[in-house]
């Protein structure tokens, strides 16, 4: 369901690597990579680039295009080895990074209007949803199936199509999330625009969650 | 594929399962660490890992990363050993249908990979059903 939702969103993104809709049957019938993940659960490796221009907030008004404010930032680490973690089903680094970023922004996670997260694999998006506190632990999969994270849901996740459909250019992936946040907050996201988006959160990670970075963006 | 120097450095762990036990709190670090992540102590006594454990999770790798293409499909799992250390390794000599969480496993000394006809043969540990 995560892959189907992200490809739905990606089909509305002209810059996506795989801007095509897929069905649940297509995911379940695709080839196994490592049980139970099938190839349509896995993000691709992508050639891509992304860039942002940073400036002091007081200068932002001097440019023709409206600026977006970085309201909060947080970073946290965990063990690289999965086997060393206390809980295999939990992304502690994402929880801590989000807590720091939201505290800096003076916001709660429910205040965010959209989320761009590191869906390297479908299960990763579900685990990130849980670590961010969008749903209780273990409830992420069901919430996706019920539409919580769709473009028109309560918490839209990966309006860009995510790593899964937009693509995963590894080194450019995090900045590409910021680019999507800027487009959403400027109201320039076209058919995938989250209506009334004024605040958004991005979450990126490496080393299977060994390191996570979270940012909170707000329209100016 | 491990480089020869990396492989050589890891021989105490790969061949002899040498771990470090924190002299203050008893935490067993494998591979050994300089600082205990539980209590911050910097002194460890060498210990050997327990050789038996219980499978916590597993997968069957069908599309293998570089260096393991010829071995796919193969099973990989994380097991908790009798001394509380958790370890990732291949699960050998077990039909995929017999893999299950809770499976009792034992660590065995096995060949892991070879670097062509003339390169270093890497040995180490794999899990097998106990
Ligand atoms: Zn200790």
Summarize the structure.
In chain A, 43% of the residues are buried. In chain A, the strands form 2 sheets. Chain A has a 4-stranded mixed beta sheet with strand order 3-6-5-4. In chain A, strands 1-2 form a two-stranded antiparallel ribbon. Chain A is globular and about 50 Å long.
Please give a handful of descriptors for the protein shown.
heterodimer, A: 220 residues, Peroxisomal Thiolase, Chain A, domain 1, four-stranded mixed β-sheet, two-stranded antiparallel ribbon, 29% helix, globular, B: 130 residues, mainly beta, OB fold (Dihydrolipoamide Acetyltransferase, E2P), 2 domains, three-stranded antiparallel β-sheet, 8 strands, binds zinc ion
> How far apart are the first and last residues' alpha carbons of chain B, in Å?
28 Å
* Count of DSSP strands of chain A: 6
CATH class of chain A: Alpha Beta
- From the 3D structure, determine the CATH topology of the largest domain in chain B: OB fold (Dihydrolipoamide Acetyltransferase, E2P)
* Distance separating the two termini of chain A: 34 Å
- Helix and strand content put the structural class of chain B at mainly beta
Low-confidence stretches of chain A: none
């Amino acid at each position: 369901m995560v892959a189907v939702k992200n490809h739905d969103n990606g089909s509305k993104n002209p810059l996506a690597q795989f801007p095509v809709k897929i069905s649940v049957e297509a995911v379940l019938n695709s080839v196994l990579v490592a049980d139970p993940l099938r190839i349509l659960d896995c993000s691709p490796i992508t050639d891509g680039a992304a860039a942002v221009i940073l400036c002091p907030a007081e200068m932002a008004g001097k440019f023709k295009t409206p600026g977006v404010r970085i309201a909060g930032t947080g970073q946290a680490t965990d063990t690289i080895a999965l086997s060393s973690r206390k809980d295999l089903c939990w992304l502690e680094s994402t929880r801590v990074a989000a807590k720091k970023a939201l505290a800096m922004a003076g916001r709660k996670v429910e205040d965010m209007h959209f989320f761009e997260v590191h869906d390297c694999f479908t299960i990763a998006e579900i685990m990130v949803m849980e670590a961010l506190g969008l749903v209780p632990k273990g409830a992420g999969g069901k919430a996706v199936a019920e539409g919580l994270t769709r473009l028109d849901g309560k918490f839209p996740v990966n309006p860009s199509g995510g790593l899964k459909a937009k693509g995963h250019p590894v080194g450019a992936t995090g900045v590409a999330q910021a680019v999507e946040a800027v487009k959403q907050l400027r109201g320039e996201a076209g058919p995938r625009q989250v209506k009334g988006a004024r605040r958004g959160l991005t979450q990126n990670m490496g080393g299977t969650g060994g390191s996570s970075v979270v940012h909170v963006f707000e329209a100016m | 594929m491990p480089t020869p120097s990396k492989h050589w450095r890891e021989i105490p762990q790969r061949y002899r399962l040498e771990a470090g036990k924190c002299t203050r709190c008893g935490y067993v670090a494998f591979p050994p660490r300089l600082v205990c992540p539980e209590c911050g102590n910097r002194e460890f006594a060498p210990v050997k890992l327990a050789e038996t454990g219980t499978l916590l999770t597993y997968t069957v790798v069908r599309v293998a990363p570089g260096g393991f293409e010829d071995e796919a499909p193969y099973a990989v799992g994380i097991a908790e050993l009798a001394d509380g250390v958790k370890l990732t390794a291949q699960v050998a000599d077990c039909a995929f249908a017999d893999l299950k969480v809770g499976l009792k496993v034992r660590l065995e000394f096995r060949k892991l990979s070879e670097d062509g006809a003339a390169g270093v043969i890497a040995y180490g540990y794999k899990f097998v059903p106990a």
